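Fold description:
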Amino acid sequence: MSQKVIRRLTDSVIAILITFVVFTAFYSAKSMPISSKSTYCAVYNGNKEKNQVSLLFTVYNGCDNSSVTSIADCLNEKGVKATFFVSGSWADDNKDKILYLLDKNQELGNYGFYNRDFKTLNEKSTREEIGVNHELIKSMTGQEMKLFMPPNASFSSLTLKVAEKYGYTTVLWTIDTLGENYNSTSVFKRATSNVKSGDFVLLNCSQAVRNSLDKIIEYYNNVGLNVKSVSESLIKD
């Protein structure tokens, strides 16, 4: 075999190895956001065997308050239970809407108090962000939230550790409907493209989401997917 052929084969093998390493690193970053040495983890999806998806709504200062209630109305009318991750600073000014969400049979989750970047927080600040919101919602509703979502998916192993000590399961998502050219058409497309059983679909409380919500739920039903809350989706049996 000539030296030229050997060199070509060697270059090909190296290229394949580089591709494999890059792919592995990318996949790991997407599915394992914390160190492999950590015993704490986040949940990205629900039970994949039950033909169901979950809608995860974020609620914080700056969201469209009228959309919060209209989205809850839509879900309730369709017999659908979603999970609303609420920030404490928003909840503190909107107790009536917190109670409205529960009245419409929706689930509440913890989104921190001030919508801060958890990856930058020390343990004391992390405890305050999670704990103060936890106690606030408990005082309003008599219920203890069990699900926590770090804003913008920014967190550390410390975040997960503190959340777990408060009894929380940390939740992320598999489908993000946010992005450029944000409107009802883009929301529908992102919420339905390549959707599969067990997916967690991230949405915000906006008019664009409200205008697309009926069609999104209808699409899921047509392809055999039932919409369940995050807690329901995490049930294995």
Notes: Residues 46 and 234 are 5 Å apart (CA to CA). The chain has two domains: 1-31, 52-233.
